[in-house]
Specification:
single chain; alpha/beta; Rossmann fold; five-stranded parallel β-sheet; 5 strands; globular
Length: 308
């Protein structure tokens, strides 16, 4: 098995903001193994957050997946982790729908993890033997870090590349927990016009517009507010900029990751496989997009540089 991983673990996050596109593009780099979707990792980090400060319990409980059983202990968190793992593997096998829009086509995949169920469950069992009836967030942080690194090594064992980059929409809001579990980490937050985020997520039936608008702002603020945001460890990329100049956007990411800037080659490989003649997939239609303004913090939207 390849026993290496990125010297500094890398995580990409945000929802309906181009993270799957970026992860797929990165899959064409000779050194990078994209690893996604792993929402179960967020359940580990969520417990870590609540254990450190129980005041977060109510809000984090509203975000758990699946919604039942509720609570935070080794049994329920491992159940949620395993449920997500099984669902992801079912999507990869085609037994379940991907949850993406019908127009979304990705050459590397909608989901990508290369290890199998039993391998991952063996590591989860080791995690459970450590955390047990854990009451210390420091003990849980170390166990979470060991599990994340172990899964990453499993993934790399099938991909013959030097390091992984994990893409999971919610994960960048757990910057502090990631650093406690893994040491220094690099985080990439994808930004997108909130009107297009609401439009895109609404079409998929995720939630009502006001709830999506609150998620959009909250995700950005939490990602900016937790963990290191020094320029060598934290990067924000606009989805719109990546679409407009995919080579330039990719090279910016690759520079941040400290690997060879081969964006031109990677974009060309992407285009050939999905049959694109000019650029990666277009953003959501602008038709009626301003109807979502009442569900957004307009001042915050403008602060991000999105004109009305």
């Amino acid at each position: 098995m390849n026993d290496t991983m990125s010297p500094i673990p890398v995580f990409i996050g945000n929802f309906r903001s181009g993270t799957t596109l970026l992860a797929n593009l990165l899959g064409f780099h000779e050194q990078i193994s994209p690893w996604f979707e792993t929402k179960g990792l967020c359940e580990l980090l969520r417990w870590q957050r609540v254990l450190k400060d129980p005041i977060n319990g109510s809000f984090e409980s509203s975000l758990i997946q699946p919604k039942d059983p509720i609570g935070f202990d080794a049994d329920v968190v491992s159940f949620r982790f395993e449920s997500d793992l099984r669902e992801t593997l079912d999507r990869i096998s085609g037994a379940k729908m991907s949850g993406k829009g019908s127009h979304e086509s990705y050459p590397v995949g909608h989901d990508r993890l290369l290890y199998g169920l039993e391998e991952a469950l063996d590591l989860l069992s080791q995690w459970r033997s450590v955390v047990g009836k854990c009451q210390s967030h420091q003990v849980l942080a170390k166990a979470n870090g060991d599990l994340i690194k172990g899964l990453g090594r499993l993934h790399l064992g099938y991909d013959q590349k030097p390091f992984w980059v994990n893409k999971t929409p919610e994960i960048t809001r757990f910057g502090e927990e990631l650093e406690s579990a893994l040491g220094p980490t690099k985080r990439i937050l994808m930004l997108r016009d909130g009107r297009d985020v609401i439009q895109s997520a609404s079409k998929l039936g995720w939630a009502d517009a006001s709830e999506i608008g609150a998620w959009w702002k909250g995700m950005i603020l939490e990602s900016r507010g937790g963990g290191s945001t020094s320029e060598d460890l934290y990067l924000e990329i606009r989805y719109e900029d990546l679409l407009k100049d995919p080579v330039g956007g990719l090279n910016q990411v690759l520079h941040f990751l400290e690997v060879e800037a081969s964006g031109s080659f990677m974009v060309e490989q992407y285009r050939q496989l999905v049959g694109l003649s000019d650029k990666p997939p277009r953003s959501a239609s602008e038709d009626g997009r301003n109807e979502f303004l009442p569900f957004l913090d307009v001042a915050f939207l403008q602060e991000l540089g999105y004109p009305l």
